Automatic annotation (TrEMBL), chains A, B:
Gene name of the record: LOC107004644
Gene3D superfamilies: 3.30.40.230, 3.30.720.200, Anticodon-binding domain, Bira Bifunctional Protein, Domain 2, S15/NS1, RNA-binding
Name listed for the protein in its UniProt record: glycine--tRNA ligase
PROSITE patterns: AA_TRNA_LIGASE_II (PS50862), WHEP_TRS_2 (PS51185)
Similarity remark: Belongs to the class-II aminoacyl-tRNA synthetase family.
Lineage: Eukaryota, Viridiplantae, Streptophyta, Embryophyta, Tracheophyta
Species assigned in the record: Solanum pennellii
Compartments in which it is found: Cytoplasm
Enzyme Commission designation: 6.1.1.14
Matching PANTHER family: GLYCINE--TRNA LIGASE, GLYCYL-TRNA SYNTHETASE/DNA POLYMERASE SUBUNIT GAMMA-2
Residue intervals of the WHEP-TRS domain: 56-112
Length: 738, 738
């Protein structure tokens, strides 16, 4: 059985890694597919445009070369001055035309890579977001005072609060709503478990080493960087060469170590820092290894995903659920991947929080009783066929996608819908989010179907949630390795008659014929599948003897009619025993949060118009702090009211912050807008106060006693800001606001 | 600087480990102190009792020996039958008296070890609790289908839910209430950080190996087991020998490798499994080691505590708090300790959840503005002096304990009070909980004061929370190693005049006198403390020359008057720069939860009286499921009402479970009582239902529409069951109840 786990727990580009080495029929000659792997919302139109521009550029260059030759010839032959001038003018005109095509190409490339916005403006936007996040301690590079460790980040106070809000909502939206069985397993995992799952053998990236310094790089990253750089900056590239490089980018994840190594050699790629030659690529296991106990003989790993903890507990969980299917188990926890050279900031880290669901279901019935709750939802979907034919993601109705078979089954569809609701309620922009189906070569051979929730960010489309129907693979793998049957039973209300294949090797005859090899021949006969067995039965009856391949012996043997009896018998069965299928939505919490930061960030001019102010437009659900309390001026009476308000907010369970610095109200608003605090309470009297909403900057007057409950209702989602505006008088203040 | 971290983050017996090797003035000859280290609530009275019984036993034995001799002599000298009979009778009487003393000793030993209950009954109680916990999947030995790994446990569905409730409440009670800055740092930690904290060098246990099989044991455990076994089962032990063994138990944690090894040899202790000889004890580092990145040159560890992540971020957090003290940072997360041979089930594990607070405060002002909120609390405290003088823990008022100096300062006292409130609100029995002050030899030399919240369980008194004033130690250690100043500033409203020591070595003269050694002499002069420098100044003025020890040279040199100028100058200072003190409450969440299980568990007879039923009396706050919904009989109408109720409970955010099996209501109640579900709703009509409270078994009738809000109010703590009883009619049903 091939290793194909990871294909989707692996939201997180893991899939990119382990998958398709087994699918190398998609060779380097395969046509370009999957624009998603290269561009943000790049379309085939942009690609065609680029192609014709490159051809035009090459033509123009050759015209320039010809005209240049003409000019030189005229000059050397001492032609008339006017003739020479005319020829030079023509040459310059050609050069201008070339420059114009070059800038068109530049625009086309930026368009393909950035959904319209240029690469530079995306970088600038990202820098603005990241600067704000770091300055306000949403996150902190870990161990900063010791110069940090690549790929490790701390959540600072507001980031930690956002994370805890996202996780609470996840529990509410999935675990509580669906009555899931939540478990909490250790990160330290013994080798035997990760051998069964395949991670010990196959959870690898291909690595190259600087042959002189020993510095390590991811082989595919170097090749990818080379191709992208060439495509973006080398305008002399022929259309054919450009197509070749793009093809490499498209199939990058499918390349074997040998293929990668050959390309690196062919293109003369060297170590980025030193320009030294590179070693051949070889696999590096991405798990953090350790040793359990003091003896040094029990290897263990930090888990690369949380799912295995659920699979190994299937039997107990099934029992806990009253031996009934379907049911789902869930786990939130840390996972670890020892990346070779982490890049992309918060998106590719060495330790991260996963939230995973394993929904166990009878493979014969993948309907879902609550599917109708989500069937009417419409959102961007990107089915496999549309990717291959070069179309864009488009809005589909979920119910139709399931009924047409685009999505394999109702349960998978139900989770896609629930994930859509989860992400949009957090504040992810529904127009910059899509569900992309895995291509055939991305998907494990056992998987029934697999969709990634991808969110568009300045880094491109990012896999944030993987939703896969993994069939029975994981439970079977652990059943085999542990010898504990991880199965479910369906008791029949009355016994059913079933036709069963019965193979009875005749040991005496086999012993005479095969002596020491008897056992292996017997086992091979017993292991025959129905089709093979029935063919043998027919052959034995017609010919009396057949050739039979015994793989444990590595050779064919001759089986005679008297050595085995094969028949079909009718048996009564009282129950059906089967390995459940598992449908697995797997959430990369850190990635979702980072995309949420980008989707929530905007700037607006200050009142004086002299600077741009940053705002995070978090919904109250995820806002790190729900409201701030400011006394308008430094004044004991107002401060007392502020402290009173603080007490009532604490009692109502609302996280808040008092700011009694003497700074101007405008500056204080700006400070809290930058933290994404949705409401600000300004104490400007002892009986009533103003409440200001962050994005509209609307203010209302509310009695001191009522403020906490008003804020609580809005932050809990029981009422909206529009409701508040209807209930309380609008306040327009001269003293306040920026 | 000595290593002394761990002394209290180390709630969790870590302190037992690293501490007092530096305090070995408390040698083996030290008198017996600290009953806590040996017994559950063992008092000096019990100890005295045991002592006199052992002496009586020895006397009785020698009387028996004498009398036995007399009998033998009478027999061999052919004495009169009557005389022999009388002597034998006397002998038998002595033997009976001895047996009676033995059983008294047995009772005394059980009393000392078990707070009155016998060791057997404690084991039986624990077994009942643990059986229920495992059967109902509160926890599961991790990777069970692969025969598990010692010291690793999963939280199954109800356990996971209890844990998540405890952590939510912790956030509410500490983080939100105190406006703490919560952070979330990675578990993977580079070596440099744990070198600075001292863990790389000193976070060890002493280990011995079976010399033939290589099996590893904790050296102190083997010695402890030997002593306990002897004391409990060997009645021939002399009172002197018993005192010696008890003394070893008392100072066990202070023994050096050499001392432990000597005792193991002296007592002939061998490997428990094989009886093979043991190696000498040697230190084993308890951190799980790994390697960060692919190069293999960056060692890392899985963090043994979460505190370091906060310390290294001090500078950013201080800035985030507006450069103001005091403030507290908090972190919840996994910690890892590669125990040599984990015992005590859920109490000593290799991976666990810590919740730690680091409260940073000006060392010159440790008052707390909210101390008055907790000053009136009264609970069991066990100050150092009472432990040494052999008294019991007794009820003290917190305010008095602080004002009398028993507790070092208000901030420490405030946290002790808040921890008390936290634990009791979770459901910890206040009478089986105490705050024990660390003894002088348990405490780090820099620590100002340290108290453990200990909870009594079947294993004895368990440290569950450590609350320590660690002074400036941690921040100083990281300042030194990282060269980043982790300090706070107090800006003076107006500049202050300060007398400052100024030492100016005269380089020219020093150069002439010491040539190559000049630099070291200069540095040694500059490093002089005030007292030393002023003495030198006086000596130079009176004698013109002094002997001065330069430790970097390892010898004395002669310093003349013209080689250094020492003076005191008045300087103006605008601010004070200082390293804050840190007060650290550190919670072992898993230990608290286990103790909560024991404190919540009880049994009661079934209605038929034929069996004992298990109940967990969790308060609604921590109950894994808040209520269950049962249709009284299997009937479509009732099931529909049940489903409707389920929807409204979900909307109200109340975790619940529907049980529509046909089992009797009594059995269904028993099942949910065993999970600690506080309320059960039985649907026995379509308009109103009965709500039953778990412990009283009282039932009330509530309208279907009102049920969710009634249950929500009680589980949220907004009203009590008593309030519900007042509002709704009591229901007495013939059909229901066990």
């Amino acid at each position: 059985m091939r290793f194909v786990r990871a294909l989707n727990t692996c939201a997180f580009s893991l899939c990119r890694r382990v998958i398709s080495k087994h699918f190398l029929h998609c060779s380097l000659l395969k046509p370009y597919i999957g624009a998603h792997q290269f561009s943000v919302s790049g379309t085939m139109a942009a690609v065609a445009d680029e192609d014709s521009l490159r051809r035009a550029l090459a033509q123009k260059q050759s015209s320039i070369d010809v005209q240049g030759g003409t000019v030189r010839q005229l000059k050397s032959s001492g032609a008339a001055k006017l003739d020479i001038e005319a020829a030079v003018q023509a040459l310059n005109a050609l050069k201008l035309e070339k420059a114009s095509i070059e800038s068109q190409l530049q625009v086309a490339l930026a368009g393909a890579a950035g959904g319209g916005s240029s690469s530079a403006s995306r970088d600038a936007f990202r820098q603005a977001v990241v600067n704000t996040l770091e300055r306000r301690l949403f996150y902190i590079p870990s161990f900063k005072i010791y110069r940090g460790v690549a790929g490790l980040y701390d959540y600072g106070p507001p980031g930690c609060s956002v994370k805890s809000n996202v996780l609470s909502f996840w529990r509410q939206h999935f675990v509580l709503e669906e009555n899931m069985l939540e478990v909490d397993c250790p990160c330290v995992t013994p080798e035997v478990v990760l051998k069964a799952s395949g991670h010990v053998e196959k959870f690898t990236d291909l690595m190259v080493k600087d042959e002189k310094t020993g510095t390590c790089y991811r082989a595919d990253h170097l090749l990818k960087d080379f191709c992208k750089e060439k495509l973006e900056k080398d305008f002399s590239l022929s259309a054919e060469k450009a197509a070749e490089l793009k093809h490499i980018l498209a199939v990058l994840d499918d390349l074997s170590a040998e293929q990668l190594g050959a390309k690196i050699k062919e293109y003369g790629i060297t170590a980025p820092d030193t320009k030294n030659p590179l070693s051949d690529p070889y696999p590096f296991n991405l798990m953090f290894q350790t040793s359990i106990g003091p003896s040094g003989v029990s290897p263990g790993y930090m888990r690369p995903e949380t799912a295995q903890g659920i699979f190994v507990n299937f039997r107990d969980l099934y029992y806990y659920n009253g031996n009934k299917l379907p049911f789902a188990a869930a786990q939130i926890g840390q996972a670890f991947r020892n990346e070779i050279s982490p890049r992309q900031g918060l998106l590719r880290v060495r330790e991260f929080t996963l939230a995973e669901i394993e929904h166990f279901v009878d493979p014969q019935d993948k309907s879902h009783p609550k599917f109708s709750d989500v069937a009417k939802l419409e959102f961007l979907m990107f089915p496999r066929d549309d990717q291959v034919s070069g179309q864009c993601a488009k809005k589909l109705q979920l119910g139709e996608a399931v009924s047409r078979g685009t999505v394999n089954n109702e349960t998978l569809g139900y989770f896609i819908g629930r994930v859509y609701l989860f992400l949009t309620r957090l504040g992810i922009d529904k127009d910059r989010m899509r569900f992309r189906q895995h291509l055939a070569n991305e998907m494990a051979h056992y998987a029934a179907d697999c969709w990634d929730a991808e969110i568009e960010s300045s880094y491109g489309w990012i896999e944030c949630v993987g939703i896969a129907d993994r069939s029975a693979y994981d439970l079977r793998a652990h059943s085999e390795k542990s010898s504990v049957a991880l199965v479910a039973q369906e008791k029949f209300s009355e016994p059913r008659e079933v036709e069963k294949l019965v193979i009875t090797p005749i040991k005496k005859e086999l012993g005479l014929a095969f002596k020491g090899n008897q056992k292996m021949v017997t086992e091979a006969l017993e292991a025959m599948e129905e089709k093979v067995a029935m063919e043998m039965k027919a052959d034995l009856e017609s010919k009396g003897e057949v050739e039979f391949h015994v793989c444990t012996l590595g050779k064919n043997v001759s089986i005679k009619k008297n050595m085995v009896s094969i028949s079909k018998e009718i048996k009564k069965e009282h129950q059906r025993v089967f390995t459940p299928s598992v449908i697995e939505p797997s959430f990369g919490i850190g990635r979702i949060i980072y995309c949420l930061y980008e989707h929530s960030f905007y700037t607006r001019p200050s009142k004086a118009g002299d600077e741009q102010l940053n705002v995070f437009s978090f919904p109250p659900l995820v806002a790190p702090i729900k409201c701030t309390v400011f006394p308008l001026v430094q004044n004991q009476k107002y401060e007392e009211v502020a402290k009173l308000l603080s007490k009532s907010l604490t009692a109502a369970g609302i996280s808040h912050k008092i700011d009694i610095t003497g700074t101007s109200i405008g500056k204080r608003y700006a400070r809290t807008d930058e933290l994404g605090v949705p409401f600000a309470i300004t104490v400007d009297s002892t009986s009533s106060v103003t409440v200001r909403e962050r994005d509209s900057k609307d203010q209302v007057r509310v009695d001191v006693e009522k403020v906490a409950s008003v804020v609580r209702e809005v932050t809990d989602g029981l009422s909206s800001w529009a409701d508040v505006l209807k209930m309380y008088p609008l306040h327009s203040s001269e003293t306040a606001e920026e």
